[in-house]
Amino acid sequence: MSGKMIVIFGVSSILWMVLAAQDFKVEISPESRIVTQIGDSVSLTCSTMGCDAPSFSWRTQIDSPLNGKVRSEGTKSTLTMSPVSFENEHSYLCTATCNSRPLEKGIQVEIYSFPKDPEIHLSGLLEVGKPVTVTCLVPDIYPFDRLEIDLLKGNHLMKTQDFLEDMDRKSLETKSLEVTFTPISEDTGKSLVCRAKLHIADIDSMPKERETTKTLQVYISPKNTVISVNPSTRLQEGGSVTMTCSSDGLPAPEILWRKKLENETLQPLSRNATLTLTAMRTEDSGIYVCEGINLVGRNRKEVELIVKKKPFTVEISPGPQIAAQIGDSVVLTCGVTGCESPSFSWRTQIDSPLSKKVWSEGTKSTLTLSPVSLENEHLYVCTVTCGDMKVERGIQVNLYSFPSDPEIEMSDLLVNGTPVTVSCKVPNVYPLDRLEIELLQGESLMKKQEFLEDMDKQSLETKSLEMTFIPTTKDTGKVLVCQAKLHIDGMEFEPKQRWSTQTLYVNVAPMDTTVLVNPSTILEEGSSVDMTCFSGGFPAPKILWSKQLNDGDLQPLSENATLTLISTKMEDSGIYVCEGINQAGISRKEVELIIQVAPKDVQLTAFPSESVKEGDTVIISCTCGNVPEAWIILKKKAEMGDKLLKSIGGAYTILKAQLEDAGVYECESKNEVGSQLRSLTLDVKGRENNDYFSPEFLVLCCTSFLIIPAIGMIIYFARKANMKGSYSLVEAQKSKV
Q1: Within a 13 Å sphere around the CA of 354, how many CA atoms are in the beta-carbon half?
Q2: What sign results for the dihedral spanned by CA atoms 196, 198, 202, 207?
Q3: Are residues 547 and 576 located together in one domain of the fold?
Q4: Closest CA to 457 of 435, 430, 438, 480
Q5: Rounded to an integer, what distance in angstroms lies between the CA atom of residue 577 and that of residue 517?
Q6: Would you tell me how many other CB atoms lie within 10 Å of the CB of residue 515?
Q7: pLDDT for the residue numbered 570
Q8: Chain centroid to CA 713: how far?
Q9: Which of 26, 156, 616, 675 could crosslink 612 through cysteines, CB 3.0-4.6 Å?
């Protein structure tokens, strides 16, 4: 019975536990996510329902240390983290166990750091026109990748920046944004806003945006400091002076007046814009300094006050400046009024030696410069001392040299169409940089030149202008003008302008040279001929007749336009040259004159004799005297008609003469002027009938080999001795020899 009850009790207990477990729940607050600032305190609470005596345990999701304190009591357990740090950024799990049944609940703890407003830093004071860098700092920020910084000037966004590249780093850092801009005066009063935003969604309990505002003050460094002096910077003892100083700047500069002492230190005088000095003494002379000062700079201006004793006057003559030509004499005079016993001294402004004569007497002193040279071009100062007062007067001695008119030179004769260079020279001129040269043709400017590059030269030099042009015949009679000007303002001297002129005469080289021959260039011996030469050019060319010699040289004949030859001879044949000559050039024309002569001295010979034996060799040769252009015709006379012979060089050879070769042979030499005939009779004798061998025949055979070459040589030299001519073959063709 008891056993049944135990079983029933056990079953009922188990049934109760099952029913009880169905009402067991776990809650965690603040729910599933909390965002807390680093350094704050945060508590996580885990509570149960449906269980009177639960047990609790806390852990992170990755089982790292809790870095907090746990307190459990009854149905609640609290995890407190104070202060919160990077080690607390986890997902925390609370495990509640009731009757061996565990339940878990998790919460995500996220941390951030955004403790302060941004800071605005400027790299320096804002000065108009000078770049300045604005830095917007956001200190101790986490997480960086959620940060955004904006920098605004007024309503204008200057720059925005985020920091996504730092998303994996866990640390507190100061992030910044920098912008460089150049302030302008209109920026004064505008607001510079640095705005930082931490983008963490769904969190309302924290500041997501902070900003800092800075009002801009733009500065302008003092400038344009000006001093006005009334009545003058030169005062007499006992007088008064008022000096007013102004200086531009933002904010308005403070004015500070001081005076320079002998040791270069500055003695403070006043902080007012106006400084008034009364009852002035000579020791009040000096340099007064006005300085405008504000936060970004200072600007100063100096003025020199000179307090003089009772004045005496000094005059220097001829005036404040004098123009003197190099080589002239100059006398400078310094005179004093209001001082009975002045002392004088002369010097140049650069203290170079005077090396000239000074004469002083009473209230006058003179400095004589004679002759004036380049070393005397200075500002001369006359210093007059009267008691303890000194007065100086200066006179500027300016020198010049412009002694003669320009010179016009040509590089060559003016020839039509040929470039020529004209040079306009100005001798011994000074100062060089004030010289201007112009070259004109009539009133038309051809070229102009200045010499500014020589401004530092101190010497007498000849300067020139050169120009190359091509003259034409139209230029003849025109006037070439070279004009030189010495531009020295304020210097009274004459002349300041010189010029030279030259009338142009353009030469034309000889041309179109022609020769007229009367009656002809081909004449018979004994005739007369006129050869007339014409040649154009300017000036009219001179005519020169010459004959060309065999070696190419010219033999002068006549300077007349017409060359006449009377009773011409064959030696007058040749090339005649006419030359037209003037200053611009030479033009020539050639003409060939031919004097013809009738043939003469014709000779007809038979070699070895006019009487030969049958079988002999006979050479019939015709020669003519030295007559050019002659024809030689060789023929044999016959009743049935003359037979023309084929001759070589006027020679006809008969090999093995026959009886029928005997007869009359005739030679005719002729040209266009006339002809001449010669004839001979050749006798051929029959051979005797001998059957024996003749010794004479042997000798003849042996010598024939020598005779024939000898005959050829004889003919050759005979031909050489004859005058040049021509021979006609059967075809009567001309053959010049």
Answers
A1: 16
A2: negative
A3: yes
A4: 430
A5: 13
A6: 18
A7: 84
A8: 82
A9: 616
Q: Do residues 251 and 212 both lie within one domain?
A: no
Tally of domains within the chain? 7
For residue 36, give the 3-state DSSP assignment.
strand
What does the pLDDT read at residue 603? 87
d(CA 652, CA 641): 19
Residue 239 is part of which domain span? 220-308
CATH for 249: 2.60.40.10
- Give the distance from CA 268 to its chain's centroid: 57
- DSSP label at residue 1: -
Specify the residue for token string 């400046």.
321
Residue by residue, DSSP assigns 178-224 as EEEE---GGGTTPEEEEEEEE--TT--SS--EEEEEEE--EEEEEEE
Say if 17 falls within a structural domain. no
Task: Specify the DSSP class assigned to residue 456.
Answer: T
Give Cα separations from 391 to 31, 363, 388, 473, 595 (angstroms).
103, 13, 10, 70, 107
CA separation for the pair 210, 118 (Å, rounded): 7
Q: Which pLDDT value is given to residue 633?
A: 87
Q: Alpha-carbon distance 219 to 128, whole Å?
A: 6
Q: If we measure between CA atoms, which residue out of 645, 649, 662, 650 comes closest to residue 610?
A: 662
* Residues in the chain, pLDDT under 70: 1-22, 166-167, 202-207, 310, 355, 489-494, 625-629, 688-737
- Provide the pLDDT for residue 290: 95
* Neighbouring residues of 641: CB distance < 8 A, sequence distance ≥ 6: none
Q: E strand or H helix at 12, and its extent?
A: helix 2-21
Rg (CA), the chain: 68
What is the per-residue pLDDT across 570-623, written as a single tens digit (0 to 9) for each? 888 999 999 999 988 899 999 999 888 878 778 889 999 999 999 999 999 988
Q: Please count the CA atoms within 13 angstroms of the CA of 412 that sit on its side-chain side.
A: 15
